[in-house]
Each structure stands twice: as C-alpha cells, then as structure tokens.
Write a structure and sequence with these properties.
The chain has about 240 residues and is of the alpha+beta class. It has helices spanning about 5-20, 25-35, 40-50, 70, 80-95, 135-145, 150-160, 160-175, 210-215, 220-230, and strands spanning about 55, 60-65, 95-105, 105-115, 130, 180, 190-195, 200-210, 235. Pfam families: HTH_IclR, IclR_C.
Length: about 240
C-alpha cells in the first residue's frame, strides 16, 4: 500500500473541498474540514491561489481557479467545451489560428487551439505558462485589472516605461480588444477579445496569423469575431 504524504493530502483535500462547495469556502471552513489550524492551512491556500488553482471571491470565499486547465487541457473541460464551437466557426470564417487563453495570476496559458487552414499559419505553443506581456490576451487581463502590484510586476519584468504601458492599456480599453503586432513573433500579428462568464473575465479568444494577412484587416476581423461570439450566446468582455 502506498503511504500518504501529509502535505499532498492537505493540498488535495483543499482542492476537493473547494470544488465541491457551490458557494466557495472560507479559510475557516477549509481548516475545519481538514481538522487543521487556520495558520497551517493559510500558506497552502495562498500558494494554490498564486498558482491559479484557487481564486478568492467575495467575502473571502475561495472558489476553484482556472489554473486547473493547465492540467486538464487534454480533457473536455467546461470552458473548452463552451468555447470550442465558437472557435471552430471563427476558424472556418477567418482561416487563421484561433486560440483560447486562460489566466493564471500574472501569467497565462493556451488550452485549446483551432489551427489555420492556410499553408502558412501561426502555431502557438500550448499548455505552457507565459508572461502576460506582450500577448494580446495578456493585455486584455491587464486592462480589466486595476491591481497596482500586477502593473508594477509586469512593468519591471518587461522593463516598460509607465507612459508606454498606460497608453497601450488605455487603447485596449477604448477599442475593446488587445493587440500584439509582431511583439512576440516578428512576422505574426494577433488580437484578443475577452470572454465574460458569470460577470468575470474568464478567458480570452485570440486570432493570429502572418502580418501580411492580419494587419490590413484587423478591425474587420475583430468585428466578425465579436459577432460570432455574441451569436453563440457567449458574452464578450466589455470595458
């Protein structure tokens, strides 16, 4: 018989308790379930929150975070199930690569992608954590978030001037979408729009392809994307 590990058992217990709590769970409730002092549970809960596996909501209640998609991306997760039909339609209409990004605190990861049907297209690396900046999806999260600590962290890690950062984020809020014009891959441009689920920014759908095809038609392609998402019954995140 395999011997249990106390730390692993506590982490698994926290996740199992929270995911089965419809309204989330407070630190005190989690500690009570584990029959452990709040002081010993606090570090585990905050660590899971930092990794994106828990998210603190209203009244200090923790809910299951989107970080689980990093592990479950190969399975039919609810978020992918919701977005996949829309992404397939967009792929057929636009002919470019369509990708679903989920946010993990100060990072993001791509959990599902519909490849371009063109001979030359963008192929993003999947299921890998990457910084928010300068991705188009990351700019969506930054524009929707007023956390000064997150802003400082991104600016410091990317060595960005505050005026440049603020102007870029204001552009995202004004236009309603994030742009990455060759900042990650020189020959590739992409945009992203946020997905709103239960009043929260749950993820972003990005469309990316070669500059020569994307840049002249960004506004048109964004409009098509927003229309397809709206027609599907999903909500686009508006600033």
């Amino acid at each position: 018989m395999v011997e249990k590990h106390r730390t692993v058992s506590r982490i698994v217990g926290i996740l199992e308790y929270v995911v089965h709590s419809p309204n989330g769970a407070t630190l005190a409730e989690i500690a009570g379930y584990l029959d452990a002092p709040k002081s010993s549970v606090y570090g585990f809960v905050r660590g899971l929150e930092a990794e994106g596996y828990l998210k603190e909501g209203e009244a200090g209640r923790f809910v299951f975070g989107l970080g689980a998609h990093t592990l479950l991306a190969s399975q039919a997760t609810s978020l992918v199930e919701l977005a996949a039909p829309v992404m397939n339609t967009l792929g057929q209409k636009l002919g470019e690569t369509v990708t679903l990004a989920v946010f993990l605190d100060h990072e993001l990861t791509y959990v599902h992608s519909v490849p371009s049907n063109q001979r030359i297209g963008y192929n993003p690396e999947m299921h890998t954590r990457r910084p928010l900046w300068p991705t188009s999806a990351g700019k969506i999260l930054l524009a929707a978030n007023d956390d000064p600590d997150l802003k400082s962290r991104v600016m410091n890690s990317e060595d960005l001037e505050e005026a440049f950062f603020d102007a870029e984020i204001e552009s995202v809020r004004r236009n309603g979408y994030g742009l990455n014009l060759g900042e990650t891959v020189a020959d590739v441009s992409a945009f992203a729009v946020g997905l709103k689920i239960a009043s929260s920014l749950a993820a972003a759908i990005t469309v990316g392809g070669p500059n020569v095809r994307m840049r002249p038609h960004i506004e048109e392609v964004v409009a098509i994307t927003r229309s397809v998402i709206g027609d599907s019954g999903l909500d686009v995140w508006n600033f």
